C-alpha cells in the first residue's frame, strides 16, 4: 500500500519507521520542517519526501499533527485525496475531531476513521521516534461513521506494526477513558513537580519519584489543546482525584490509623485485582 504520513513527530516518525521495518508499504511523509523530512529520508524511515500532491496516490493518510491543523489540512487539500483512501489521525481526543472531520469528509466524499495509538514517551520529537514503539501496545479505532472495511484495513495495518490489542469504541467513550488513563496522569505529574521540594529531590528520590514525575516532560502546546478539547471528562476526573486526596489528608491529619489503613488496603486490592 501507499502510505502518507503528515507530521513527523514521535508518533508520525515511529509509524514511518515501523512501516518500513515491518511491511512492504511505500512511505511518503509531509512535514512543515524540511530538515526533519531530510533526516527521515537519510535514516531510511521514509521512501519519499512528499507534498500535498502526493495525497493523490495514498491509500491511507495518517494525520499526525495537532487537532486543529488536521482539520485545516484536510479542508484545504480535500480535492487532492485519492478516491477511496482512508484518512485517520493519532489524536488523544476524539469527540471534537470526529465531528469536524466526519462533516468535512462527508461533503467531499472522503472516508475518515479515527484512531489512537496508545504508545509514546515523555519526549515528542522525531528524534525520539523508533520502529518498535508500538510493540505490544493498544490501538484504538474510533470509526466515526466509517465503513467496516476501513476499520478492518486500519486494524490489519496496526497488527503488522506490532500492536497487540485493537479496541473499537465511540468518541465519547474514548474521551472519557483517556481523561482517566492519559490526561489525568499528566495533570498529576505537572502538579507534583510544582512542589517546592522538587528541585532538591536528588539523593532523596528513587522509583516512586521517577514514576510519578516522568510525564511532566510535556509538550505544553499540544497538551493544552488536548486538555481544553476534553475539558468535561478531564475536570470530572480531577474532581474525583481531589476528593480522594482530601480524604487521605483528613485521615492523616486526624491520626485516623484504622481508616487510613483501610483506604490503603482498598487501593491495593483494586490494583491487584486488575493484574497489572
Element layout with pairings:
Blueprint: E1 2-6, H1 10-22, E2 26-30, H2 34-43, E3 48-49, E4 60-63, H3 67-76, E5 86-89, H4 95-108, E6 111-112, E7 114-118, E8 138-142, H5 148-160, E9 165-168, H6 171-192, H7 207-213, H8 220-229, H9 231-253, H10 257-274
Parallel strand pairs: 1-2, 1-4, 2-3, 4-5, 5-6, 8-9
Antiparallel strand pairs: 7-8
Question: Can you give a write-up of this model?
Answer:
By secondary structure, this protein is of the alpha/beta class. It folds into 2 domains: 2-169, 3-Layer(aba) Sandwich (Rossmann fold), CATH 3.40.50; 174-274, 6-phosphogluconate dehydrogenase C-terminal fold, CATH 1.10.3660. It is built from 10 helices and 9 strands. It has helices at 10-22, 34-43, 67-76, 95-108, 148-160, 171-192, 207-213, 220-229, 231-253, 257-274; strands spanning 2-6, 26-30, 48-49, 60-63, 86-89, 111-112, 114-118, 138-142, 165-168. The strands form 2 sheets. It has a 6-stranded parallel sheet with strand order 3-2-1-4-5-6. A 3-stranded mixed sheet has the order 7-8-9, covered by helices on one side. Helix 3 links the parallel strand 4 (60-63) and strand 5 (86-89). Helix 6 crosses helix 9 (231-253). 34% of the residues are buried. The mean pLDDT is 94.
Amino acid at each position: 500500500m501507499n502510505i502518507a504520513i503528515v507530521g513527523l513527530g514521535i508518533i508520525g516518525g515511529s509509524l514511518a519507521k515501523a512501516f518500513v521495518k515491518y511491511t512492504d508499504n511505500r512511505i511518503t511523509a509531509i512535514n512543515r520542517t524540511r530538515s526533519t523530512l531530510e533526516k527521515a529520508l537519510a535514516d531510511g524511515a521514509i521512501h519519499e519526501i512528499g507534498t500535498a500532491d502526493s495525497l493523490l496516490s495514498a491509500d491511507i493518510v495518517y494525520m499526525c499533527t495537532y487537532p486543529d491543523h488536521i482539520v485545516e489540512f484536510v479542508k484545504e487539500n480535500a480535492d487532492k485525496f485519492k478516491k477511496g483512501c482512508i484518512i485517520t489521525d493519532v489524536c488523544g481526543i476524539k469527540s471534537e475531531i470526529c465531528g469536524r472531520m466526519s462533516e468535512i469528509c462527508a461533503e467531499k466524499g472522503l472516508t475518515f476513521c479515527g484512531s489512537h495509538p496508545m504508545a509514546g514517551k515523555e519526549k515528542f520529537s522525531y528524534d525520539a521516534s523508533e520502529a518498535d514503539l508500538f510493540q505490544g501496545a493498544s490501538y484504538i479505532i474510533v470509526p466515526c461513521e466509517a465503513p467496516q472495511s476501513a476499520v478492518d484495513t486500519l486494524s490489519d495495518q496496526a497488527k503488522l506494526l506490532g500492536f497487540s490489542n485493537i479496541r473499537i469504541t465511540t468518541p465519547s467513550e474514548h474521551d472519557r477513558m483517556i481523561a482517566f488513563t492519559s490526561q489525568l496522569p499528566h495533570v498529576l505529574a505537572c502538579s507534583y513537580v510544582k512542589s517546592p521540594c522538587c528541585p532538591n529531590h536528588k539523593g532523596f528520590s528513587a522509583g516512586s519519584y521517577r514514576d510519578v514525575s516522568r510525564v511532566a516532560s510535556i509538550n505544553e502546546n499540544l497538551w493544552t489543546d488536548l486538555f481544553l478539547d476534553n475539558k468535561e471528562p478531564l475536570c470530572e476526573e480531577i474532581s474525583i482525584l481531589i476528593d480522594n486526596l482530601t480524604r487521605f489528608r483528613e485521615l492523616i491529619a486526624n491520626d485516623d490509623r484504622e481508616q487510613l489503613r483501610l483506604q490503603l488496603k482498598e487501593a491495593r486490592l483494586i490494583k491487584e485485582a486488575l493484574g497489572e
